[in-house]
């Protein structure tokens, strides 16, 4: 004999909390939160450590252990509190060279590589770059460009550090000082995982020419590009700018993804770039 709708609903309400928690662990954090309004049993299951432990990445304890704050400020009464904290408060790890957090909707791993975790050509020369501390920066120090012709920034990340079966995008997070020079409509070559694209570090739209005053034969070499070939930076909620460098899919293999930002062709003197880091987060 078939059950009526009300009888079926009654059976769901009568399910043991452990069964409900087992089902919710296969959903998502938003789904678990919404299910809290179904019944008291569902609310209790949706708040349980068993459910929120399943939303945390398998290696979260190992990642947290790499932070100086792992023993003191990360003690919470529930796994849900820990999850939400890791979503809203990026954690400095690896001696402050990386920042780790979770995407709130999915629980997938995100990182930002600090300038000290990147290869910045000429960084060791105080005539070209300098370390500076800013109150709105995530890291103790960020890199400020004083004056270079050759701009080259490189980073890398192992895919085993990231969430599997996930499409990731890489972003340069930066600002331009009030006295910046050389970046207006200057095409920058960005590369992620062997795939390159042109980006710009200024928000001004419209293609123009960039001249090379050091070109041979005493004349200026004009570099042209189509505006649609390049990405423009966007303002973030934290006040910094970001520009998308490219994307890659993490299929779960143990691979190393290389990321680069390069401008060495235009012969333009550049200054005033403040590099916060390279951010890697799910698409």
Automatic annotation (TrEMBL):
Pfam families: F-box, PP2. Residues 9-55 form the F-box domain. PROSITE patterns: FBOX. PANTHER family: F-BOX DOMAIN-CONTAINING PROTEIN, F-BOX PROTEIN PP2-B1. This is F-box domain-containing protein.
């Amino acid at each position: 004999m078939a059950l009526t709708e009300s009888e079926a609903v009654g059976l769901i309400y009568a399910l043991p909390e452990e069964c409900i928690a087992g089902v919710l662990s296969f959903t998502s954090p938003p789904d678990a939160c919404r299910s809290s309004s179904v019944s008291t049993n569902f609310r209790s299951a949706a708040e349980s450590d068993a459910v929120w432990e399943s939303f945390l990445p398998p290696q979260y304890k190992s990642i947290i252990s790499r932070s100086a704050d792992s023993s003191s400020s990360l003690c919470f009464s529930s796994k849900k509190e820990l999850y939400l904290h890791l979503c809203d408060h990026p954690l400095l790890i690896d001696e402050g060279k990386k920042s780790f957090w979770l995407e709130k909707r999915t629980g997938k791993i995100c990182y930002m590589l600090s300038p000290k975790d990147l290869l910045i050509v000429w960084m060791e020369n105080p005539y070209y770059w300098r370390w500076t501390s800013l109150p709105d920066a995530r890291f103790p120090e960020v890199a400020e460009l004083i004056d270079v012709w050759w701009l080259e920034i490189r980073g890398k990340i192992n895919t085993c550090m990231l969430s599997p079966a996930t499409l990731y995008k890489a972003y340069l997070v930066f600002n331009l000082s009030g006295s910046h020079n050389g970046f207006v409509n200057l095409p920058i070559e960005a590369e992620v995982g062997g795939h390159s694209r042109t980006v710009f570090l200024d928000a001004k739209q419209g293609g123009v020419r960039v001249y090379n005053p050091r070109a041979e034969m005493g004349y200026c070499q004009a570099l042209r590009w189509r505006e649609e070939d390049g990405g423009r930076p966007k303002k973030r909620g934290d006040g910094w700018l970001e520009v998308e460098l490219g994307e890659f899919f993490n299929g779960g293999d143990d691979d190393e993804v290389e990321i680069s930002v390069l401008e060495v062709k235009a012969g333009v003197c550049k200054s005033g770039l403040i590099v916060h880091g390279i951010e890697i987060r799910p698409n």
